[in-house]
Structures are given as C-alpha cells and as structure tokens.
Design brief:
Order of helices and strands: EHEHHEEEEEEEEEEEEEEEEEHHHHEE
Number of strands: 21
Radius of gyration: 32 Å
Structural class: alpha+beta
Distance between the termini: 106 Å
Shape: elongated
Largest sheet: 10 strands, antiparallel
Length: 345
C-alpha cells in the first residue's frame, strides 16, 4: 500500500431511525439503526511492517482508530440483530422508534378516511371543547391543543384527537398510538341528551328525552394502520358518549376510531298539527291513517313503520298540550326521529 493512502470505514451512530408502522416497517427501523445515520470516517492506512521482523510486543495489526471503528460496527450489528429478534415477536425497542407527532396522526387519518375536509371551518375549538352552531362537545381527557393549516389536534396521553371540519359538521378521529392507549374514549355534550339508535348511530337532542334533535353522530367505526376494521361500539349515558375499541392480536397499531357529528343531518322534517297528534295518540292504526296523508312516498312509508313508537309519544304530547314533529334521516335508511314540539296550529 502506497504511503499516505487512506481507506474509509463506515459505522453507525446511535440515532433513532424511522417510525415503525407494521411488520414490514420493523426491518427498515432496525436497518436504520445499522445504516441510516452512518457517516464516513477516514483513518490512516496501516503501513506495512519493515523487512526485519519486529518483537511481538511491537506489532500492531490495526490502527487504533480503525479498531474503534470496527467496534462500532460490531455494536451496530448486535443492535440490528436484537431489534429484528424483538420484531419477530411483534415488539419494537424504544430506541427503534421516534416520538409520535401531530403530522403522523393527521397523515394516518387522511389515509384511513380520505374524505376531504371543508375549506372553511364549521367549528370552533378551545382546548378540549369543540363548538358547532347548535352542538357543543368536550373531549374527556387532559392534554393540549395543536393547530395546523388543515387540522387541529388535541394531544392526550397515547391518543391524538384529530379534529377536521366538514360542511355538515365535524369529525373527531381518535388515533390510538399503541397497546398502551386507552381502549375507551369519552365525549361530553353539556346540557344535551343522547339517544342510541338501533343501527348504532346516536341522536343529539337539545335538552331532554323528548326535545328537538339537533345533530346525529354516525354509527361508529375503527380501522388499524393497514385499513383493517376493528370492532367498536358506542355507549351513551345522559349527555356522555363513550366509544370502545376492541383490538385483537393481529391488530396493527395505530388505530383510528371516528365519531363524526353532523349538524346538517336530516333529509325531511314533518310537523303534525294538534288534531293529527291527537289522532296518532289513539294507537298505531290511527297513526298510520295520519301518515298516509304525507305526500312523499318514502317519508310516508318510514313514518307508517314507526307508528308504534309515535303513538306512545303522541299520547305524551297531548297530555302536555304539545304536538309531534319528526325528522327523517335519509342517510341511515329513512330513520324517523320524533320529538315533542310546540304546536304551530
């Protein structure tokens, strides 16, 4: 080797590689430990020994800097092997991950639910409180609010709540970061009453059980980072909504669970007079006679099918000198949502 020539040895530093999303990402994360943050160090070439033999104590097979570099390479190789061994069991060491941030959560929600948010904001967010025109809800968790040009994110322990505005309401997508994330997320609707429907959706009423419905919450859904559905359900108690997610051993975290609140939510509104309400109170048969006068066929059929419950509510309405009104939700298969209202005539 000519005098003054040099060789380069590459070694890995202990920096954190890219975020691990799934089993395929484990390889990139582990290999990142070994190679992603490497840099080139130059070390002097080892001069050939002189022609005469040196005593054993004076022989140096490697330059000291080269020896340290090889030690780093061996350490990186060991770390890579350890990382891949843990990955085979579905585990990822803490040093093979980087902190989860708001951009990650926003990107994942956009991937799982590609619905395009509205260009204008339909809600106002103050800390954990989200205000629509007729609906107010609060995220029942401690955390801090972070804003981006496209979304707002309420950051809680192991959960990011991505808040996106739509023309008909607001979406609050809870992103469960990992196995340590809570399986239940709760939301409060101060001063309002929640009613769970048979299809899993929830009606938000203005004040009480028979008051005007002002919004609807779509039936629950949840998906993991691969887009695979995850079992989920709603539970309501007064003004409190709780969504429970039930991941399995094959669930790939993070998981997105989505309550979407629609304030512009119904297709048709029907108001019955005092006389019609009194007739409906006589029973389901009388209710069907009143429903037959509704001009729109789809609404007429939907109201007729709901006459059993409408007759009972009409009986309560007449006792308070009130009338029956209802809203028909076209998006959920013509669901009838009645309430007791002031008679308009």
């Amino acid at each position: 080797m000519a005098a003054g020539s040099r060789r380069a040895i590459r070694f890995a530093e202990s920096t954190r590689p890219a975020r691990v999303q799934d089993a395929s990402g484990q390889m990139s994360a582990c290999s990142g430990w070994l190679t992603n943050a490497g840099r080139w160090h130059t070390v002097p070439a080892v001069e050939p020994p002189p022609a005469r033999a040196l005593p054993r104590s004076h022989r140096m097979p490697f330059h000291p800097t080269a020896r340290r570099s090889w030690s780093r390479i061996l350490a990186g190789t060991f770390a890579f092997t350890l990382c891949m061994s843990l990955a085979s069991f579905g585990l990822t060491p803490a040093w093979a991950q980087r902190p989860w941030d708001t951009k990650d959560a926003i990107a994942l929600v956009g991937k799982i639910d590609p619905s395009r948010p509205s260009a204008t904001r339909s809600s106002v967010t103050k800390g954990n409180r989200v205000e629509l025109k007729r609906v107010t809800l609060e995220i029942d968790s401690r955390g801090s609010l972070e804003s981006t040009p496209s979304s707002r994110v309420f950051v809680a322990p192991n959960v990011h709540f991505v808040i996106r505005d739509f023309s008909d309401g607001v979406q609050i997508a809870a992103v469960l970061r990992d196995q340590a994330s809570s399986r239940t997320q709760s939301y409060s609707f101060p001063g309002q009453f929640l009613e769970l429907l048979d299809d899993g959706s929830v009606v938000v009423r203005k004040a009480g059980q028979f008051s005007e419905p002002v919004a609807i919450i779509d039936k629950p859904w949840a998906r993991d980072s691969k887009g695979t559905p995850v079992a989920t359900s709603y539970h309501v108690a007064g003004s409190r909504l709780t969504q429970t997610v039930e991941p399995t051993e094959t669930t790939s975290f993070p998981v997105v669970a989505d309550p979407r609140v629609r304030s512009a939510w119904y297709g048709w509104s029907v108001d019955f007079t005092r006389g019609e309400t009194s007739t409906m109170a006589l029973g389901a048969g009388s209710c069907a006679i009143v429903a037959a006068a509704i001009p729109l066929a789809a609404v007429r059929v939907a109201v007729s099918l709901a006459c059993g419950g409408l007759a009972l509510m009409a009986n309560t309405a007449t006792s308070y000198n009130k009338c029956i009104s209802l809203k028909v939700i076209s998006a959920t298969g013509m669901t009838v949502v009645p309430w007791i209202a002031t008679c308009y005539r």
